[in-house]
Design a protein that fits this description.
The complex is a heterodimer. Chain A is mostly helical. Helices cover about 55% and strands about 5% of the residues of chain A. The longest helix of chain A has about 30 residues. Chain B is built from seven helices and eleven strands. In chain B, the strands form two sheets. Chain B has a nine-stranded mixed beta sheet, sandwiched between helices. Chain B has a two-stranded antiparallel sheet with strand order 2-3. The chains are: A mainly alpha, B alpha/beta.
Chain lengths: ~625, ~260
Amino acid sequence: MMTVILPTLAEPQHFFAWERWLFAILAILSIFGFWLRFGPILKKILQSKKDPDFHLFPIGRRVRDFVWEVMLQAKVIRERPLAGIAHALVFWAFCAFALVTLNHCAVIFGLGFLDPAGRAGRVFFDCAALFAVACAVGILGLGVRRFVVRPRWLGAVSRESGVIALLIFVLMITYLAAFFLPAAGDAAHALWWAHTLTLLAFLPLIPHTKHLHLVLSPFTVFLSRGGFAEIPPLSGDEDFGLVAGKDLTQLVSLQAYSCVECGRCMEHCPANNTGKLLNPKEIVLGLRGYLNEYGPTSEELLLGKYNSQEAAFECTTCGACEFQCPVGIEHVPIIVGLRRGAVNTGAWDDDHGAKLFLALERGSNALGMSPAERDKFVEKNALPIFDGTQEYCLWLGCMGAYDPWGREIVVALVRVMRHLGVSFGVMRKERCTGDPVRRLGNDLLFQQLAEANLEALAQSKIRKIVSICPHCVRTIQEDWKAYGTPPEVEHHSEFLARFASQLPSVQNQERIVFHDPCYLGRYRGVYEEPRRVAALAGDLVEAPRSHERSFCCGAGGGLVFLGEEKGERVSHVRAEELAATGARVVGTACPFCNTMFRDAFSQVSESSPGAPAPELMDIAQIAARGLPESE
Amino acid sequence: MKIVVAIKQVPERDAQVRIASNGKWIDEQDLQWAMNEADAYALEEALQLKEKNGGEVIVVSAGPERVGSTIREALAKGADRAIHVVSDDLNTRDSLGVARLLAAAVKLENADLVLSGLQSEDVGLGQTGVIVAELLGLPHASMILHVEKTESGLKIKRELEEGWFQCIELSTPAVLTMQSGGNKLRYATLMGIKKARTKELRAVDAADLGVDAATVVVLEQLSAPKKQKTTHILQGTAKEAAAALVEKLKMEARVL
């Protein structure tokens, strides 16, 4: 039907010989201009160190990510629907235009392969026209957003972006206008040249603007490590993490050049939103600046001119940035890599950090307590020692074994397990899983802790672990793999959700808001299980930021053990957000979140004594609340 | 400045020690070992002196094979080389016997400064360092928090009782036993451990050093302190009882 409504695309029929020469020269100049800038970038990426852990296979996951994130633009749209759809329209138009452009350029040599008057050509050009309209609307929308609305995370207004947007808009208009001109006239001829010159001007602008993502990001998405916040292994005796340019791997360099500067990472970053120096976008752009100045074989330190140590150590490793990134940049391994570089070489000098490291070098737990305290807790609560006959090993973790509130969570979980008749035992001795030192970049200490624990678990013939701490779960399951085969491990929310039908629900129902811990949600993809448990005790309400968009409590990445925060406290911001839902109970599923909010609520209620702080409960405590008293 | 640091490996702090069946030492099975804390401070002081003034830091440690892990930790933290005095009878030697081993190993180094911790966390006699000084015929000072190199020798800060400090000057060579807490300790790094592998670790034994195992003091028996719980009801008015409580907390419990 469209073919009837729309006029035919005007395609100039005759060109002079000098026009062909001029076009050929301009096209070569344009491509040369592109290569002049793109060549060195490609060289820098290829010259970077090989990624030691890179495997192209299994390729299915890569193809799926590519189709979903690049072709369908699903991530772009899902996380920012309005701007995302505008972007997708532009992207899809570009795809449709690949053939149009090829044909457009071929026409001058009389080699046009799509006949505008023919049936197939008509259908194709008309479809492309639809995309062109969509693209023009999309780019206008994006232009308005960038130059009128100007959200904070887009950074300073860039003239280049304006030029590029204008060029894209002109490209679309010059294409559409051709439908309304007679093919034979001078006007069509002039229009052809207008479209062509716009195209040739666009190409060399790509490599040195953020529009380089057009070329690189499909590769970045396809080649990404895949695992969320996956910390790559160190290779050889000279690898201490990201110390200098020579340590940047091809993936890191590719990612550094792929950044489209959209600032989604910054929009969601808990550190950046509470007045800290850290800006995940600037971390990536800092690497790009470094590569441009020093290159990928340099010995110049990465934490220097372009990136600061202070910023690298403000990251809670919550992964919100990496989750949001539409071009496949893996921020957490980069930031942890920079920390590894600083800690593994001894360049990081921090009183609290050194105290944590020394506590774990000489003792067993991150809280620096005597292991006898754990023994007392185990004895007092008559926790059975795992002897091979029980089904589960209940992993206490540092918080569960030593922290008074963490212990209450363990005690509640134990009540539930006893009620369910599930057999379990605890290790006679446990060491910290190494989570905080892993994220702070101390590979030596992490390896010692992982190996000692793996050996102890193997000796006790433990096959199934359940833990109240998402950090322990993550570290055991993923990070220990570098040093052995860890047993099966699950978080208590998964365990409790399986038995939810056997747990009594609580009578006086209250409004409950559940806070997704980063290491359970984004890291493990567990969102519904803890909610199923929390729902036993009340009506669930959601915080403005929940599920994949949950806002960190501020404890992760070892930061709970470091000193004063700059600016606002992350935990206070989140606690206020949770309290503002009007829920009477805040449900948590991580002992670190729990302790952060406990402090935050006591501070908040001190400053506004009128409004009582909500009650803070782990889901294990929620599950145990409905049990008869005697149990 | 050439500095030798004597280091002892002791059971990890908070380790649950059990007395061995012969009643003369602890059962070493299942124990985790660590560097004696005061020795860690001695090493830190030596490393900082080297960083300021240049020179070399040599660690020496006596004990069985397991001591190697503590020596490597010291090398990882920045010591330049190490001497391991291999001895399986460390716990039957008295302080003089251990000091003889260390002094013999240290003597050949002709160091400007010999440091050790004030005392060990396991037996805590506080003797070994000063006996080494006597055996080497060197001046010594104990309970040192801080050492500074001067034109003529050393300026050192000693800890006295009740928050008093004493600053003294000393000529080199000298032997000092270090108190804990004078510095911030550094953490071990991956780079340090990797570098440590290429550093010299020389093993010698008592025979090489020409030291016999004759003891002056013999350890008869080890026993755990008796746990006892007693309850006193303080009589009198609240005021009298409070006064009596304060008196007891001061004089008996010594917590005030």
